[in-house]
Write a structure and sequence with these properties.
Layout lengths: L2 H24 L2 H26 L3 H13 L1 H13 L2 H24 L4 H4 L7 H5 L1 H4 L1 H19 L11 H23 L8 H23 L14
Helix pairs in contact: 1-2, 1-11, 2-3, 2-4, 2-11, 3-5, 4-5, 4-9, 9-10, 10-11
Amino acid sequence: MIVFPLIATGVSIAFSAALVLQYKQKRGLPQLAWGIAMAAFSIASIAVAAGTSGGWDPTLYRVFWLFGALLNVPWLAVGSIALVSPRAIGIAAFGLAVLGSAFAVVSVARAEPSMAGLAVSGIPSGREVWGDAQSAMVNFYSIVPYFIVVGIAVLSSLRRKGVRPPKSRVQGNYAIAAGATIVAVGGFALRRLDDSGIAFSTALALGVVVMYAGFLLASRAPRYRVEEPGESPT
């Protein structure tokens, strides 16, 4: 069973390293934000591998909860915002994500998990471990940023002043939204049916692959406009 979290970990680490390398070459804010998101996915996968194979303790679950439930999707959203917005807005979104991440770290560090909730063979439920207060943070840290990612994917496909957006940007943003959906639905929704960690890790690995394909497509496109009105560059 540990093989599935390890596969998800390897895929996430490889893509995170590739995105950071792209950032060093291009100094692109989207690549940096997406690289941070991929790093968060890899840390969450490592926690799942350790927790499902050797049992959960408060520290290990804090790591999983922080990087697997709270911090990954916001950084995906920052990358999407930076891709389609002026740099000043991207920097502002990046700074807001840094502050939000710091608050999440402090909040999770101070929260007291239920030892009974941790005593499961698979992945413990956040509500059973934390109760309602800490679990409610997912609404702000995962659900809202997820809809930002999806919303940008939809808006990026619309004409602006009669000009079609670059095809690669549209395809890339839709792939990023699709990958995030695979992780959300397969990783967390299906976990109710299969809490062994296999569903989460398999969905995570697949979702990360789809998202990374989206990163590559979106990174190929001009940031704000195409050169020829009415046509998308290939």
